[in-house]
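Progress note, sequence design subtask.
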């Protein structure tokens, strides 16, 4: 395997491990030696990939954003109604939360809770710009087709992401009565009803 490919694979392994530890133990309770230990690497070797814990935290957020955005991008490119796109995105997000829980947990438990870590270069929507762009496309396409009400972006964005993220959070807390995926249609229906023309 090519050297640059190996380095990228190792970088992704560090990101996934750090993401899991930050989500489980909390950002402030996790130190670089914890991450190194979990990977069987030296602390110095981790610093060959990331200059600091803060840089690693931001890189994880960019990776999570890219991961979620790629799935939404595929849905946006499908020749289906906006309603179907909302249903598909809700299901896809729930599936991601079940298959890659550390990535979605990181967003919910680290990024949203520890905003002070993400001050430089990750303010506002900077670290989640790819997801925001895809949601904008979903909304603007729906408005253009006459399927969604014309409304301000931020309230519409929270109508989509709030319920989806909220249900994943409740799932992670173990308070849902049924498996998360069984709520997909009801949640998507609520989002559609709140946004439709």
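Output:
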């Amino acid at each position: 395997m090519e050297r640059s490919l190996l380095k990228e694979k190792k970088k992704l392994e560090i990101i996934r491990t750090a993401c899991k530890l930050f989500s489980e133990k909390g950002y402030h309770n996790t130190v670089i030696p914890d991450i190194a230990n979990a990977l069987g690497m030296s602390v110095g070797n981790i610093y060959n990939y990331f200059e600091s814990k803060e840089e690693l935290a931001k890189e994880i957020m960019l990776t999570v954003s890219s991961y979620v955005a790629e799935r939404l991008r595929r849905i946006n490119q499908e020749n289906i109604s906006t309603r179907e796109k909302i249903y598909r995105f809700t299901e896809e997000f729930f599936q991601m939360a079940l298959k890659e829980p550390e990535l979605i947990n990181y967003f919910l438990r680290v990024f949203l809770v520890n905003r002070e870590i993400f001050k430089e270069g990750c303010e506002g929507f900077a670290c989640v710009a790819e997801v925001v762009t895809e949601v904008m496309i979903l909304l603007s396409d729906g408005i253009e087709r006459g399927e969604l009400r014309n409304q301000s972006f931020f309230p519409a964005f929270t109508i989509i992401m709030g319920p989806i993220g909220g249900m994943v959070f409740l799932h992670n807390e173990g308070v849902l009565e049924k498996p998360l995926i069984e709520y997909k249609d009801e949640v998507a229906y609520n989002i559609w009803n709140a946004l439709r023309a």
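Residues 52-195 form a domain with the Tetracycline Repressor; domain 2 fold (CATH 1.10.357.10). Work on this subtask will continue into the next period as scheduled.
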